[in-house]
Amino acid sequence: MYVSVVLFTADLRLHDHPPLRAALDGTREVVPLFVRDRGVADAGFAVPNRLAFLADCLRDLDSGLRRHGGRLVVRSGDLVEEVCQVVAEADADEVHMAADVSAYAHRREARLRRALEADGRRLHVHEAVTTALAPGAVTPASSDHFAVFTPYFRQWSRQRMRDPLGVPRTIRVPEGVGSEEVPSRAGLPGVSAGLAAGGEREGRRRFSAWLRQGIADYEDRHDDLAVDATSRLSPHLHFGTLSPVELVHRARGAGGPGADAFVRQLAWRDFHRQVLAARPAAATADYRTRHDRWRTERTAQEDIEAWREGRTGYPVVDAAMRQLRHEGWMHNRARLLAASFLAKTLYVDWRVGARHFLDLLVDGDVASNQLNWQWMAGTGTDTRPHRVLNPVTQARRHDPDGSYVRRWVPELARLEGLAAHEPWKLRGPERDAVDYPGPVVDLAEGLDRFRRARGRA
Ligand SMILES: Cc1cc2nc3c(=O)[nH]c(=O)nc-3n(C[C@H](O)[C@H](O)[C@H](O)COP(=O)(O)OP(=O)(O)OC[C@H]3O[C@@H](n4cnc5c(N)ncnc54)[C@H](O)[C@@H]3O)c2cc1C
Fold first, then answer.
1. Atom of ligand 1 nearest to the CA of 361
2. What is the model's pTM?
3. Which of 4, 44, 126, 333 could cysteine-pair with 23, CB 3.0–4.6 Å?
4. Is 229 in the pocket of ligand 1 (CB under 6 A)?
């Protein structure tokens, strides 16, 4: 009897799951396996917010599998050793898993393939499971990847994507393969108070609600900080409780300018993945060096602390950083503002900011986080690498009545309208009544320092 192992990684769902479907087509019994990989923890990626969301996802995956006659096997340790152990216990012939893009994922996959093949077993790696289009599926004439989004998007949009797959009817798991208890978020320390719930059912519920109520207004309202009119599906995409292929199909089915704008954002996600797949070093090294001599933890410690804690004295930046801490999530416009402020106005190494984001973001993701940070720092794929976002102008435009600031910075809750964006303009008793720091840097001085550093003064 043929047995296979399906190794779940960043694809924690039953809908549209090519590895599971392929395994069930070719074999009678399947071991659905998740390994809590020690290597991920050793690299500092197993942070409380993502562990909590992951626990929700695993519990939901286990109950989904049980509804179809199966169960989830959970192990902890070195991923390659654990998979080989389960393969031996189940006497499995093959392993199916989704392709991934980071250098770590590539090394891990190569080690797993060698270990399995040495033992006469096979590894099948499936593309377009965690992306809508496989990295490398479209390339420009002269390179192995696209370095600019617009031409990438043009090609991406023309490709025919595979059809989404349904949920398998029956899953039979061989007897005798033991599992650890499926983890739970209960009692996990350090989790953000406002962290969203994970799991495939929750992801699908959110996505259906988004198609019904949110997507139509997305194009017009996605940059409005207070209205919060984006999908908030990023953690579900990060953990793969939703399939990007299915999202593209269903959004296109809904149609309209909002759906087009949403699909374009999903293409941004694929874009960064194809950059990282081709240039894995971009996770830590400048994609395009500008020969910056950044300020660092050693030379700008106080500024960095003020930024992390949301007390830079620039209300919209502080609101963004406090939302991050409270929810483990941040609006895209807020991420742009917070990143521009750290990397350009304070001229601090983008890696310091990227690390802080990865410590807290529930959707914290090597490709999307590092390459968006590089984009904003001007060392990545932005075609206008020296632009600096002015936090006051941006706040007036994207938080036009100050509600976002008042929601996240309670010290300013009594300031009306646009006054919340410039508390330093208050005078006398009004100023004395507001317990809020003055600006850590003068915007003109920050701009000047950055322009000089980039040789553009
Ligand atoms: C400095 C910085 C750091 C970021 N770090 C991350 C990260 O770690 N993980 C992450 O998923 N996104 C990251 N982003 C991208 C973006 O901010 C988030 O994906 C988005 O805010 C998530 O909210 P949403 O699901 O409501 O997005 P929506 O606006 O509803 O977009 C739908 C989906 O498209 C994808 N998407 C949207 N914008 C981008 C983008 N610029 N790059 C890549 N994918 C995108 C996301 O998967 C998102 O869920 C970062 C952006 C910046 C500027």
1. 8
2. 0.97
3. 4
4. no
